Amino acid sequence: MKIIISFMLFSILTSCIQQGSQLEQAISQSGDNHVELEKVLLHYSANQSDSLKLKAAKFLIENMPGHYSILSDELSNYKQHLLQYDAYLKAPAHIRAMFDVYPYQASLVKLLHPKKVEDIKIIKADYLIDNIDKAFLHWEGPWGKHLTFEEFCETLLPYRVDIEPLSNWRDSLSSEFTTTMNWLSHVDEYAYSPYQACQVINDTLYKSTNYANHIFHGFRHSLISQNAKDWNCVQYVYGAQYVMRDLGIPVHIDYIPQYGVRGSRHYWNSVLHYTGRSYPFQGYNSGPERSLNPHNGIIKVFRQSYARNKYWVSEKARGEPIPPFFENPFVKDVSHEYQRTFNIKVDLTHESVEKRQFAYLCVFNNEKWVPIHFGRIKKNSVVFENVGTGVVCVAGYWINEEVVPASYPFLIKSTGELSYLCPDKNQIQSIRLKRKYPLVNWINRNSDRLVGAKIEASHNSTFIPSVEVSSISENAYSNYADHYIPYSEKYRYWRIRIPGSKASIAELQFFSDNDSIPLNGRFFASPKEIEFEQKKAALSDLDKLTSVEIRDWLAIDFGLPVSISRIHYLPLTDDNNIVPGETYELLISDDKEFNSLGIKVAEHSYIDFDSVPVNGLYWIRNHTKGREERIFTFEKNRVVFR
Predict the structure, then answer these.
(1) φ, ψ of residue 295 in degrees (nearest 5)
(2) Dihedral over Cα of 404, 407, 413, 415: its sign
(3) What domain of life (predicted)?
(4) Which burial class, exposed, middle or buried, applies to 118 when counting CB atoms under 10 A from its CB (0-12, 13-18, 19+)?
């Protein structure tokens, strides 16, 4: 009888695992753990009604090689440290989950002897079966039933999010949202809409961050350099993914490895609606469709996947060194979901010193070219597929752990055409620079908010009565500005009344007549400014990056009546304007590198460079201080940061 049963089991496994198949290759890498994987296949082969679960099990096992956890003494110490922290033990499960996985996104470089533990060699049958069964219940639920099998496999089925240790996380998070889930199920507008459910749950998550910021304010560990209030997009999207998956809401993790016009990456979530469209949102922060700024240059967008991408460069470039970003094959290109894209053909005008099959599409990260996409080289050219527009790029070879330009820089125009930036040394021009980095709205809006501010004077600290002597009509655009007052009467108290809800001021000085030395006085503010006394030193500390936020009015007491002829002020700024006395260098991309066009000390709030070749890609550097610098083109007598 045992022989018959064994033969039947062998026959079932043989029918499941075809020789040479991806499934057979995966199991062959499992070592002694093949027994656990075969248990899963046998479990779902017993009944025809489980055929779809068997297919799901095969999907997980086929793509399991390459998925792993990281273990180390430092991570074990971190976990023990958490367990001794009373606030952690009392925190909601989804907040604990974020603290659990935090080091796996932020601290791997700090680990001395990390150990990679591959899922394929340690995962247990009971664990995999439990995950599959629970995922199928969610697929049948109100927010997952619209999913195709392929969509289900990438949103609700996976048992892990990234490289965190395997855990029994399913059903540990959803219990905290029982009240919200019951409410959702009774509201017809939300009951079957993944979009609406996602928004409601994410709003709940957002409110919980205040709690997390409070209880973890004093938590410290060598693997965590930030408080919860300083967490960034990476921590939040993984936490949101856990919660949404446990609630049966189909959510992805999407990301930009490098923005096209600024020096950073970005991660966010997207919810897959029954319309077939994925709506982006920022986990624990913004609702659907409010997490991306397209002006930052989203030339390539990728989606984290469980399935291995067979067409990824790590799967094709055998024996050829590739950039670290491309070593992870669990990724899907979804650039076309976020923008109009093109396949672009780039001429490789610079030969490689080493033989290469692949070239890389690279964007500038404020310091160097960073590869974000790849293409196979064919006859001194390369085609990069599914690429966005409006960004300056360069094609590059990956040699000795760095990018070596393979082409001249080029701008990808809105039509998909390329405009190469080849300097013409036979034509020269003069360039005037006022900034070294793009002026963004959240900085400049403080300058906007000061436009219309009233300058008032009084003999009484209550400003009853007071006289309006002037108003600010000019926009400082985050730079120092002088406001002149054609008024000769003397008053002890002077103030600036903010026209709107609030404005931030970094520096503030008052001058009388033609004096070059500011008058001394004591700053005070409206009773609405609760923390003003603790922060008012920022107004006169000569530090441009410190500021005071004013919601009503800001005043100064000179001790005796004085006349004011000029107010010198600086709105909140990023300190990226050209500053007199600081040293700047202008560079131009010429051949394979940036070469200097000269070094100067600024004498004004702008700086001029002469004899500059036209049609170049330029880079202004501050050798005195600061890190934010940006490449630019010069078009129609204007700097255009790229």
Answers:
(1) -75, -10
(2) negative
(3) Bacteria
(4) middle
pLDDT digits (tens, 9 = 90+) for 419-471: 999 999 999 999 999 999 999 888 888 899 999 999 999 999 999 999 999 99
Q: Is 288 exposed, middle or buried (0-12, 13-18, 19+ CB in 10 A)?
A: buried
Q: For residue 349, what is the enclosing H or E element?
A: none
**Rounded CA separation 155/253 (Å):** 9
What topology does CATH give the domain 429-438+578-641?
Immunoglobulin-like (2.60.40)
Q: Which residue has the tokens 């700097």?
A: 639
H-helix segments, 279-350: 313-316
**Cis peptide preceding 329, ω within 30 of 0:** no
The 3-state DSSP class for residue 369 equals: strand
Residue that the structure tokens 């029918």 belong to: 15
For residue range 482-525, what is the model confidence (pLDDT) as tens digits?
999 988 899 999 999 999 888 999 999 999 988 889 999 999 99
DSSP string of 603-638?
SSSSEEEEEEEES--EEEEESSS-S---EEEEETTE
First CA to last CA across the chain, in angstroms? Answer: 75
**Domain boundary assignment for the chain:** 2-62, 68-298, 313-420, 429-438+578-641, 441-571
DSSP for 420-456?
Answer: E---EEEEEEEEEESBSS---HHHHHHHHHHTTPEEE
